[in-house]
Amino acid sequence: MVMTITYELGNALYLNITNRCTNNCSFCVRNSQDGLSQGVNLWLKREPTVEEVMTDVQKWDIDKYQEFVFCGYGEPMMRTYDIIEICKQLKTAYGLPIRINTNGHANLICGRDITPQLTGLVDAVSISMNAKNSKEYQQICLSQYGEKAYDAMLDFTTRCRRHIPRVGLSIVDVMAKDDIQACRKIAEEIGVDFKVRHFVNHN
């Protein structure tokens, strides 16, 4: 099996570096298909090294893209320290903006606040919020950290604001309109962007 480490989506080059995740979300696309676009299988036989990621990036015409995005079939921040190293190399080689799509558990994963280390490397972070409180979050996301995962995600969001230019929370439109509005209010109180993603059922 040939591993898909990098893939195109829109005007961005995406980096798929792990299949591990701290959540097992009920709506996750991994439960219904092998890839995010036709003909691209995002299941990895093993995690690529930093060197393999950079080599894979080099096969593309980078001038075509407007940003790099860490997003694949797993939680990118499972490999926080490798991401930091990859970001350093990407910034040096290409200078393009870098975005991370994440569940916001990085500080739980690492056991400390890692957001200062993202300063100057990460230009945007999109954090999956998915619920208006910790109980509902755990029911939907089935985090390995239990109900404390939700507050940790919001704390990570708040801390990211100090170090990253663009920070946003997102939810999937599988919840009631009142719940969506409650989530929007939380995002506004933190002072970050808010996005409603459309759920596509592939079953």
Automatic annotation (TrEMBL):
It comes from the Bacteria. Pfam families: Radical_SAM (PF04055). Signal peptide: none annotated. SUPFAM superfamilies: Radical SAM enzymes. Keywords: 4Fe-4S, Iron, Iron-sulfur, Metal-binding, S-adenosyl-L-methionine. Residues 7-203 form the Radical SAM core domain. InterPro entries: Aldolase_TIM (IPR013785), rSAM (IPR007197), rSAM_sf (IPR058240), rSAM_TatD-assoc (IPR023821). The keyword Transcription does not apply. NCBIfam families: tatD_link_rSAM (TIGR04038). PANTHER family: 7-CARBOXY-7-DEAZAGUANINE SYNTHASE. This is GTP 3',8-cyclase. The gene is moaA_5.
